[in-house]
Design goal:
This protein is mainly alpha-helical and 332 residues long. It has two domains: 209 residues, Rossmann fold, CATH 3.40.50; 110 residues, Tyrosyl-Transfer RNA Synthetase. The chain is 54% helix and 7% strand. Strand 4, helix 7 and strand 5 form a beta-alpha-beta unit. It starts with a strand and ends in a 6-residue tail after the last helix. The relative contact order is 0.15. The structure holds tryptophanyl-5'AMP. The site of tryptophanyl-5'AMP has 26 residues, from strand 1, helix 1 and helix 6.
């Protein structure tokens, strides 16, 4: 059976980009396709400046939102990364497999370290080693598929490289995984800066739709989206990225095709109105279910406890095998 693993960082509130690029697909498709594990990857949220109390709130919120989005604990395993020690245990061994040069090449490391330096903050060492921990997240479960948005492709490529290198050096230990991406909305762009990805931690939130935004806030953000001044509407991600982004979002929300949708609009005003309505409708059930689940913290905790138990049982043998293969003396 296909093993599927993916995760989301609780570094900020979940965005429409996270939802359309990853989470919705996990709930609607991936959890039913194989043996699926989904994880709130809280250790990753420690790689940048953080506030402990906020991290705690956001971790709980992320888990609640994943359930609200439709992850079903009877069908998949949902857990929190720091509850399963095996991720960190395997990460060290993979650090001994990766080279300094290959992790320094990661685009997210370059971008985030430049941002931290510009803000006068020091760059945490864990920001550099982060993709290795991500590789451990995936390899520890022997995942075949990793459903992610476009921005994570490079990290999954690194994961593949590390798995193959380890297998070649020390004997077959890891499944070599592959990334899967959605057909549309693999990279939802910031509505105010269509050249940048819509991100949880963007300095300005005017162009970022959060899953828990109230409908009138969603409408305002979409209606104010930056588009180009050219006449008519066409799907041209390179030349007219703002309009193309709206078409992608509308297509992802309504199940249409962005190029075909472009032909139906004369003006951006009408496109924005329909996109705003579509986004509000897609997010409404998630917001409503989140409110119900948030009132039942005991239920969410129970799901996470059970999920961590299942995850530990799956992860342990892989780490033991990797430790043996690399020459560490078994504890007996
Ligand atoms: P994170 O928390 O940034 O994002 C979670 C998922 O959402 C996708 N995504 C987007 N998709 C489309 N458009 C966007 N604007 C957008 N923004 C985010 C991401 O591609 C991702 O699939 N490193 C990962 C978390 C992680 C992980 C893992 C993922 C840690 N270990 C192991 C998979 C497997 C991250 O920062 O995702």
């Amino acid at each position: 059976m296909t093993r599927i693993f993916s995760g989301i960082q609780p570094t900020g509130h979940m965005t429409l980009g996270n939802y359309l690029g990853a989470v919705r697909r996990w709930a609607q498709v991936d959890q039913h396709r194989g043996e699926a594990l989904f994880c709130v990857v809280d250790l990753h949220a420690l790689t940048v400046e953080h506030d402990p109390a906020r991290l705690l709130r956001l971790s709980r919120q992320a888990a609640t939102l994943l359930l609200a989005a439709g992850l079903d604990p009877a069908v998949c395993t949902l857990f929190v990364q720091s509850h399963v020690d095996e991720h960190a245990r395997l990460s060290y061994v993979l650090e001994c497999t990766a080279s300094d040069g290959e992790v320094r090449r990661m685009i997210q490391y370059k971008e985030k370290s430049a941002k931290a330096q510009a803000a006068g903050e020091s760059v945490r060492l864990s920001l550099l080693t982060y993709p290795v921990l991500m590789a451990a997240d995936i390899l520890v479960y022997g995942a075949d598929e990793v459903p992610v948005g476009d921005d994570q492709t490079q990290h999954v490529e690194l994961t593949r490289d590390l798995a193959m290198r380890f297998n070649q050096r020390y004997g077959h230990t890891f499944v070599v995984p592959r990334a899967t991406k959605p057909q549309v909305a693999a990279r939802v762009m910031d509505l105010q800066e269509p050249a940048s990805k819509m991100g949880k931690t963007s300095a300005s939130t005017g162009g970022v739709v959060f899953v828990l935004d109230e409908p009138d806030v969603v409408r305002k953000k979409v209606m104010r989206a930056v588009t180009d001044s050219g006449a008519g509407v066409e799907y041209d991600p390179e030349g007219r990225p703002g309009g193309a982004n709206l078409l992608d979002v509308l297509a992802a929300c309504t199940g249409g095709n962005p190029e075909e949708l472009a032909g139906r609009y004369e003006s951006y005003g009408a496109l924005k109105r329909d996109t705003a309505d579509a986004v509000v409708e897609v997010l409404r059930p998630v917001r409503e279910r989140h409110a119900e689940l948030a009132a039942d913290a005991g239920y969410v905790e129970g799901v996470l406890r059970k999920g961590a138990e299942l995850a530990r049982a799956m992860a342990r043998p892989t780490v033991d095998a990797a430790y043996r293969a690399i020459g560490l003396l078994p504890a007996g």
